[in-house]
User: Which sequence fits this backbone?
């Protein structure tokens, strides 16, 4: 039988976990929804809900440390130069990649995908730099953020 005192000594203190991971959860706007807890020997630490969370609710928002689209991939799939959001709808991409003039009978875009497609702009926003054709963006906000962060 395992020694309870030894098991307790091996488990991280809840206060220490909150001190260590609390600031990280604050940065990604998750501190009001989740906490880092020790889940047990063999499992380690994990995120657990601290309140009821709706099925479609966003609980963590974080910016990637590094994100880029491979050059060869840019030739086939247009994505925003900052957030990597697709610059075309799923249906438009299916038509382009299959060379069909219209989608086959019975082809349906799932509702969840159609909802994600809804905010995609019909136009692409070009770079602020004259003559630059390397990057396109999904919005003026992404273009301006990219300019301020790295593209200037």
Assistant:
């Amino acid at each position: 039988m395992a020694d309870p005192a030894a098991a307790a000594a091996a488990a991280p203190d809840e206060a220490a976990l909150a001190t260590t991971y609390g600031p990280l959860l604050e940065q990604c706007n998750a501190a009001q929804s989740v906490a880092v807890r020790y889940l047990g020997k063999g499992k380690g630490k994990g995120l657990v809900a601290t309140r009821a969370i709706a099925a479609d609710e966003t609980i963590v928002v974080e910016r990637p440390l590094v994100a880029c689209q491979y050059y060869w991939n840019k030739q086939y799939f247009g994505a925003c130069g900052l957030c990597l959001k697709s610059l075309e709808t799923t249906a438009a991409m299916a038509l382009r990649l299959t060379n069909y003039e219209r989608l086959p009978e019975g082809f349906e875009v799932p509702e969840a995908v159609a909802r994600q497609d809804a905010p995609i702009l019909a136009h692409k926003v070009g770079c602020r730099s004259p003559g630059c054709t390397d990057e396109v963006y999904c919005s003026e906000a992404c273009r301006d953020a990219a300019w301020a962060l790295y593209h200037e």
